[in-house]
Specification:
This protein is mainly alpha-helical. The protein is 57% helix and 0% strand. It has helices at 18-31, 34-54, 72-84, 91-102, 104-107, 117-137. The longest helix is centred in the first third of the chain and has 21 residues, at 34-54. The radius of gyration is 18 Å and the shape is globular. The mean pLDDT is 80.
């Protein structure tokens, strides 16, 4: 089934990312024959739509910054894959998929000394901005320690 054919409330929800789709298809192909992969992925897609029908509509779709690449909707897609095929997959496999999707941004970072004052200030600003956005959507609880100038 094509992603555009999925019946979901696109005013309140968005689709999982292309990277997530590829990750799931790759894992399915490890366990099943090539001719069964698309049929099996369709079951995962239908489970995904089922979760979104029963799930809250205040996730914010594209407007919520947690819903970018690798956000809430990729998590829901991975959970859909697990629920549909838990007899063929393991939690370790799901964790590996999660790492491939969510940690790739961190792999591109260069090592820096985070104890230097400039980096401490940048990290504080970054976390403070994220907290502000979390408070706006009221979807995650986040606490940020005050910035201490030394």
């Amino acid at each position: 089934m094509e992603d555009k054919e999925l019946v979901l409330d696109r005013e309140h929800h968005i689709l999982y990312t292309k990277q997530c789709r590829e990750e799931i298809l790759n894992k399915i192909s490890l366990h099943y024959s090539a001719e069964d992969v698309e049929k099996i992925f369709t079951k995962v897609q239908l489970q995904y739509v089922g979760f979104l029908k029963d799930y809250r509509t205040d996730l914010g779709g594209k407007k919520n910054f947690h819903n970018g690449a690798g956000g809430n909707y990729d998590c829901i897609a991975l959970f859909s894959y697990y629920v549909v095929y838990k007899e063929k997959t393991s939690l370790a496999e799901i964790e590996e998929m999660e790492g491939n999707l969510f940690l790739s941004a961190f792999k591109n970072l260069k090592f820096v000394d985070c104890n230097k004052p400039i980096y401490k200030k940048l990290m504080y600003w970054s976390f403070a901005l994220s907290k502000k956005k979390c408070d706006k959507w009221d979807d995650f609880d986040m606490n940020v320690a005050p910035y201490k100038k030394r």
